[in-house]
Amino acid sequence: MQNTRGHILWIDDEIHHLKPHILFLEEKGYILSQAANGQDGIALSEQNNYDLILLDQSMPGLDGLETLAELKKNRSSLPVIMITKTEDEWLMDEAITGQVEQFLIKPVNPSQIFMACKQTLEKIKLHEQKATSDYLKEFQEIEAQLSNELNVDDWWRLYDRLTDWQIKFDHYNDTGLGSILKEQIQTCNREFINFIESNYESWMQSNNRPTLSVDIVPKYVKPILDKGEKVCLLVVDCMRHDHFKSMMALLEPFFNIKLDYKLSLLPTATPYSRNAIFCGLFPDDMVKKYPKQGDDMKNDSTSLNQHEKQFLIDQLKKMDLGDKRVHYHKIWAVEEGNKFNNRIKDYLQQDILALVVNFVDILAHKSSQMDVLKEMVPDESGYRTAVRSWLNHSWLLQVLKKLSENNFTVILTSDHGSIRVQRDVMVAADREASSGVRYKYGRNLNTKEKNAIVIKEPEKFRLPVFGPQPSYIIAKDDVYFIYPNQAHKYQSKFKNSFQHGGISMEEMMVPVAIMKGRG
Questions:
Q1: Which terminus of the chain has fewer CB atoms gathered within 10 Å of its CB, N or C?
Q2: At what positions is 4-aspartylphosphate found (predicted)?
Q3: Measured between alpha carbons, how far is residue 432 from residues 83, 466, 468, 494, 509 in Å?
Q4: Does residue 150 share a domain with residue 137?
């Protein structure tokens, strides 16, 4: 039986008339069992582990629908193909809600039956084979592309392709290509880091640069407000591109989605990249205009984004949009999210609704602290699954539905992404250095340059200068920083966890989704 294509039970009161069909399926490699009524079919199903049931609707005694219900009670995942003479829509509806795989109308020829069986039993295998063939071809194309000089748009398209393959392989675990894709992403990341090192400093001094965190409001929000339309700026903290792509299917029933991208500022962390979205300023100018923010950053405060509402209001005033009605809301707990959802009608008259949602970031950080979350989010695939499941069952999806129905354009983005860290790297720093795992600032910080960008002149990177002999170190690849005297403690805590602050495609290349309601 191991060499067969599957074991099928065919239940039909006229089974003796179906000998040609049965012989045809057996020639194709299937094993066929037969039952002439629903009761016998149910009994056989309870005694045998069939791969598929072919079920007639019009039978004396138990009809097809009644038999279907009993079969599903015994094994809810058992695939069933229903075959009937009638084309009544009510019957189709009942069969579909009863979880049949396909609905065939008699008369059916042997080839039709074979095709239906093949599609039901082998579709995953066929999809996996096609995915394997397509990826191996694309693997070569991507490798060849890396030998060319890529601009930032090229890098986004390449990263987008890799992300699509990550999500596809989430569904097809048996291809054996997941490890190859992971290695290819690592290879691409090394080239991407070289690209950033070669270009980032010049971008900081020029208007001829990619879209950065500071450009989100001017480029995406302002044009909507200028037309007198309502907009929601939704920042999902720490959301990666693959997270958004995995959530798109949940959003598309309500929105037409146009996907763009931006680069997070360095370091890829909230004090720099998220504050830059709301104030529209590079970090060096931000701390000059808002000294209190600079003090918080210098002291490595636990709250480094408490001024975002004021930042946004000031940025709108600078763009002559100071008359717009603004509501800002930061949501870090489900209770607060539910309260916001219940009161959404109070905010629908605002011109701009600014939301910051922290779930994805909290999940990343807590997964390094709680064993149960480490098991739920062991890798990138688990992280995507957790984020998608959260959105599907969260207050946020309900809010987005209501915004889509009330003429809001939603600009959904993130401040930065994250990367799963694997390798610890020793760093030399004094006790005044900041506490980041993927970036640090302080006096005379040092580590090997193959593992990090070491910045001795912060002003060239538009970074604040805190005290004498200032320096920053920003991690490359999948490394995280540890101190020699606490190496074991941090190794056990952070290895395989998701962190941010450094340079990688996952951290820097952030989606910007322009979402307009379908209604």
A1: N
A2: 56
A3: 75, 11, 12, 21, 31
A4: yes
Query: If you write DSSP's letter for every residue of 135-198 in order, what string do you get?
Result: HHHHHHHHHHHHTS---HHHHHHHHHHHHHHHHHHHH-GGGS-HHHHHHHHHHHHHHHHHHHHH
Length of the chain: 519
Structure tokens at 392: 């599907």
181 has a pLDDT exceeding 80:
yes
CB atoms closer than 10 angstroms to residue 491 = 13
pLDDT at 373: 74
d(CA 31, CA 34): 10
Residue 164: phi and psi, rounded to 5, are: -60, -40
Query: Which CATH number do you get for residue 98?
Result: 3.40.50.2300
Q: Are residues 143 and 275 in the same domain?
A: no
Separation in Å, CA 367 to CA 293, 378, 382, 383: 28, 9, 11, 10
How many distinct structural domains can be found in the chain?
4
Distance CA 421, CA 481 (A): 10
Q: Which two tokens stand for residue 482?
A: 């540890």
346: CATH: 3.40.720.10
What are the tens digits of pLDDT across the range 99-122? Answer: 889 989 989 999 999 999 999 999
* CA separation for the pair 453, 472 (Å, rounded): 8
Tally the C-alpha atoms within 13 A of residue 512's C-alpha that lie toward its C-beta.
21
Domain that holds residue 305: 211-419+507-517
Q: Is a pLDDT exceeding 90 seen at residue 294?
A: no
Q: With contact defined as beta carbons under 8 Å apart, do 207 and 159 qualify?
A: no
Share of the chain above pLDDT 90, in %: 75
**Is the residue at 1 inside a domain?**
no
Structure tokens given for 478: 């999948």
pLDDT of residue 243: 98
